[in-house]
């Protein structure tokens, strides 16, 4: 164990800076492998995902789905009135979060992880200083290895400071005391679209401003079109090809937002004004790579501030690793957790496989799930792909649940039948993607999927049917 004898300090095998999904999973795995572990986070374990993002948003999205379902089941002979006490809904969401954070704390302690609440900064290649915000006390920790898992922060739009009460980031939007009557959302990426849909289902008049020409630009049109159509049916208004440039308060307590064409080649005055009670800014997230002292140590970052690592999470300084959002795309909690396990096992002397297959999901209505290669990506990588699609309108389970929109697509190598990827838009896409991910990770074939008996009636049958279609012998593809 490294230490400077002249300076009294705490010692640990592994120091982890950041307590989100990447950090706490790394800590638990390192503890299981017999390492002494110290985990430092400013606000305790959980990070943005558990405390302010993934979990609270999905709690409210699920509640909004319930509200919408109750209000729209007349065709099944069910009629009901429903009201929403948003403050109580937020309190319930907070209880869910507290239960999960306490569970994470127990798991850390059960694996002998020492938890420190405070800000940690690397001051030497084997030493860090930790201090609690508002407290002058400083603790020095000597370590063999350090893992930076400081996550990311929402990007502020120039002129739209999150310090101004009507201007919201995702965290503030999920903590409102009451839902607004009118909400402007700037950004139609996954955060903007998930929260826009949630608020629309709760009765909010939502307008989305997006500089590009369509929502969810990382996904193909055939996956996003069902989401856009459903959103418009819910009452969402879109302003595509426009950017928000300024805002001001108006006499009735509302605000108005100036928008302009994203590509104003004529330089003409084309300002339009959008009125709302609040504005949610959801234009992306930046890595938090400026708080842990890595620049002073010479840890290399790319031009966007992401820490550069190899496939095992190691930076250019051998004993310093980085995992999670701070280490770059994909900025997904589950990827950060998986990368953290790889880093912990590497430090412990194991020989882990690098993370290969990472699903991405969007909790819109309908949901989107994607894993592995698309058909275009497969061709670009030299494969001759074959594809199979199965529409949910032909799924008995989808019809019984009232969700017939969307499809499952499988992409496979035509010669070997090995499944290379898959895309889903439709009910429970976030859950169904896991089966395709397992198939890709284990290099299984279309025939392997078909020969696996799927329970009936279930949504997962759609994956088996898509495989049948790719093999050329579809069974249940009647146009319903």
Keywords:
single chain; five-stranded parallel sheet; seven-stranded mixed sheet; 31% helix; alpha/beta; 14 helices; globular; 480 residues
Structure, briefly:
The chain is an alpha/beta fold and 480 residues long. The protein has helices spanning 21-32, 47-52, 54-71, 86-110, 170-173, 190-201, 221-233, 294-297, 333-347, 375-380, 396-400, 429-441, 446-450, 461-471, and strands at 10-17, 37-41, 113-117, 119-124, 127-131, 138-148, 152-154, 167-168, 182-186, 205-210, 237-240, 242-249, 255-261, 272-276, 278-281, 285-287, 320-322, 360-362, 367-372, 385-391, 407-413, 419-426.
Number of helices: 14
- Coarse morphology: globular
| Strand residue content | 25-35%
| Separation, N- and C-terminal Cα atoms | 67 Å
Main sheet summary: 7 strands, mixed
Mean pLDDT reading? 94
Low-confidence segments, given as residue ranges, are 1-7
Number of strands: 22
Query: What's the Cα radius of gyration?
Result: 24 Å
User: What structural class do the secondary elements suggest?
Assistant: alpha/beta
**Helicity level:** 25-40%
Q: How would the blueprint of this fold be written?
A:
Blueprint lengths: L9 E8 L3 H12 L4 E5 L5 H6 L1 H18 L14 H25 L2 E5 L1 E6 L2 E5 L6 E11 L3 E3 L12 E2 L1 H4 L8 E5 L3 H12 L3 E6 L10 H13 L3 E4 L1 E8 L5 E7 L10 E5 L1 E4 L3 E3 L6 H4 L22 E3 L10 H15 L12 E3 L4 E6 L2 H6 L4 E7 L4 H5 L6 E7 L5 E8 L2 H13 L4 H5 L10 H11 L9
Helix pairs in contact: 1-9, 3-4, 3-6
């Amino acid at each position: 164990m490294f230490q400077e004898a002249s300076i009294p300090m705490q010692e640990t095998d592994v120091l982890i800076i950041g307590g989100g999904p990447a950090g706490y999973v790394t800590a638990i795995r390192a503890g299981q492998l017999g390492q002494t572990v110290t985990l430092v986070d400013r606000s305790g374990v959980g990070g943005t995902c558990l405390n302010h993002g993934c979990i609270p948003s999905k709690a409210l999205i699920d509640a909004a789905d319930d509200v919408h379902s109750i209000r729209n089941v007349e065709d099944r002979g069910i009629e009901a009135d429903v009201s929403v006490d948003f403050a109580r809904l937020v309190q319930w969401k907070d209880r869910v979060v507290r239960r999960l954070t306490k569970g994470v704390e127990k798991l850390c302690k059960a694996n002998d992880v020492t938890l420190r609440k405070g800000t940690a900064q690397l001051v030497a290649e084997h030493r860090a200083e930790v201090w609690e915000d508002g407290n002058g006390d400083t603790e020095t920790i000597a370590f063999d290895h350090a893992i930076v898992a400081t996550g990311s922060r929402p990007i502020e739009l120039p002129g739209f400071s999150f310090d101004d009460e009507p201007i919201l980031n995702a965290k503030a939007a999920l903590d409102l005391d009451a839902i607004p009557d009118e909400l402007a959302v700037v950004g139609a990426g996954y955060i903007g679209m998930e929260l826009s849909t949630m608020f629309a289902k709760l009765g909010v008049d939502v307008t989305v401003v997006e500089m590009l020409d369509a929502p969810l630009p990382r996904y193909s049109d055939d996956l996003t079109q069902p989401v856009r159509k459903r959103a418009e049916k819910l009452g969402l208004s879109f302003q595509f090809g426009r950017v928000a440039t300024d805002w001001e308060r108006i006499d009735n307590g509302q605000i108005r937002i100036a928008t302009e064409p994203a590509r104003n080649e004529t330089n003409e005055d084309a300002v339009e004004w959008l009125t709302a009670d609040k504005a949610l800014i959801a234009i992306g997230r930046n890595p938090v790579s400026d708080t842990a002292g890595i620049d002073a140590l010479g840890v290399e970052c790319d031009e966007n501030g992401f820490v550069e690592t190899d496939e095992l999470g190691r930076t250019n300084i051998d004993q310093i690793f980085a995992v999670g959002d701070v280490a770059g795309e994909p900025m997904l909690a589950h990827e950060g957790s998986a990368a953290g396990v790889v880093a912990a096992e590497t430090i412990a002397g194991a020989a882990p496989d690098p993370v290969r297959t990472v699903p991405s999901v969007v909790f819109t209505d309908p949901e989107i799930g994607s894993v592995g290669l698309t058909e275009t990506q497969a061709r670009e990588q030299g494969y001759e792909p074959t594809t199979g699609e199965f529409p949910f309108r032909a799924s008995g389970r989808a019809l019984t649940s009232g969700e017939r929109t969307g499809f499952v697509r499988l992409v496979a190598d035509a010669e070997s039948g090995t499944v290379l990827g898959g895309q889903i838009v439709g009910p429970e896409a976030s859950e169904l993607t896991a089966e395709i991910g397992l198939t890709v990770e284990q290099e299984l074939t279309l025939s392997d999927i078909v020969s696996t008996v799927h329970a009936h009636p279930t949504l997962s049958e759609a994956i088996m049917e898509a495989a049948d279609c790719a093999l050329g012998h579809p069974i249940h593809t009647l146009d319903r």
